[in-house]
Amino acid sequence: MPVLHTLRRDVRGLLLVLLAAAALHTAPAPAAAADEPGWTAEPAAGGAAARPGGARPYFYLEGAPAAVLEDRLALTNTTDQERTVTLRGADAYNTADGALAARPAASGAPGGAGSWFSFGAGATVKIPPRTRAVVPFTVTVPPASPPGDHPAAVIAAEAGREVGVRVHLRVSGPTLAALTVEDVAVRGRGAAAVVGYTLVNRGNVALAPELDIRADGVFGEVPGRGPRTLPVELLPGQRVELTEPWPGAPVFDRVRVRVTVTAPGGARADAAASAWFVPWRAAGRTGLGLLALGAAASAALFLVRRRGPWRRTADGGAPGGPSGKPGVTTPAPEHELTGASR
């Protein structure tokens, strides 16, 4: 029994050590919280794009050329110290892989939608501790602005950290949904095969494209990728380069891959490319075997030609007969007849 008590005490001691180590390991967690910015930026409650409960995921503004549109941004300071936040408008665009981004302050296009924003005296906002500030702003649409979507964002910045709030900005007038598919190519083999392609928005409205990939080979139809909505919002005038995994790619075949993209509003485009699928390792081993076989056959033929033609004579020997002299053939001996004469 004393042994059991000693064992229990050792187990309790080990548990206490492990708990202490876990507490030391998790102690730096407050430092991570200290790295958080301590303020947020979002559309103020209300508006046409509001979710249930009043929250809005983005701004939605629409007006005719020369219109002045208004909305409000909410800034919330969740810390115990004052925050100073600066505000500006920015043009939105697609990165090469299709993500949405806002252009830096110094690189906005002249006359772009980012330059239509005005925050008045609220371009720099001081937010007291534990306070929510609502900042009004206006968007003045130039008189000659073309109709359609003009993607933009409101950028809030403090001490090098920026937060962007999306602005769906549309100028009233005719809209056109149009796109093209370019640069279709098949890369990789087997499970790593992908179909690469480029999408270009040729219209004046943002698009939510749907992709469909079909393929035909020498041996019949090849499984492609069924229709699916791409996780990309393609902005007007933007070009994105995308890839789609193709797990159904054949092992050995010559295929023609067709990429078809559609989008709400009647946009549709397709493009195709051809590709060979060859198991190069197996083909390499087969090629080496055939090469070795061909080399052996060539060597044998060479040896036969070096030795010259082989003709059999009446005595079964080589040309020239027993004398070994070329061109001299020993006549066959006459057979002696035996037996009784008749």
Secondary structure elements and their pairing?
Layout: H1 2-26, H2 29-34, E1 39-43, E2 59-63, E3 68-77, E4 83-94, E5 100-102, E6 117-118, E7 124-127, E8 131-140, E9 148-149, E10 152-158, E11 161-171, E12 179-187, E13 194-201, E14 210-217, E15 220-229, E16 239-245, E17 253-263, E18 267-277, H3 280-307
Parallel strand pairs: 2-11
Antiparallel strand pairs: 1-3, 3-8, 4-5, 4-7, 4-10, 6-8, 9-11, 10-11, 12-13, 13-16, 14-15, 14-17, 17-18
Cα separation of the termini: 131 Å
Question: Which ranges are low-confidence, i.e. pLDDT below 50, for 5 or more consecutive residues?
Answer: 1-11, 13-34, 282-290, 310-314, 320-325, 332-342
> Roughly what fraction of the amino acids lie in strands?
35-45%
Helix content range: 10-25%
**CATH class category of the largest domain:** Mainly Beta
Mean pLDDT: 78
Judging from the principal axes of the Cα atoms, what is the shape?
A: elongated
Which class best fits the helix and strand makeup?
Answer: alpha+beta
The biggest sheet amounts to:
7 strands, mixed
Number of helices: 3
Compact overview of the structure:
By secondary structure, the chain is α+β, with helices and mostly antiparallel strands. It has helices spanning 2-26, 29-34, 280-307; strands spanning 39-43, 59-63, 68-77, 83-94, 100-102, 117-118, 124-127, 131-140, 148-149, 152-158, 161-171, 179-187, 194-201, 210-217, 220-229, 239-245, 253-263, 267-277.
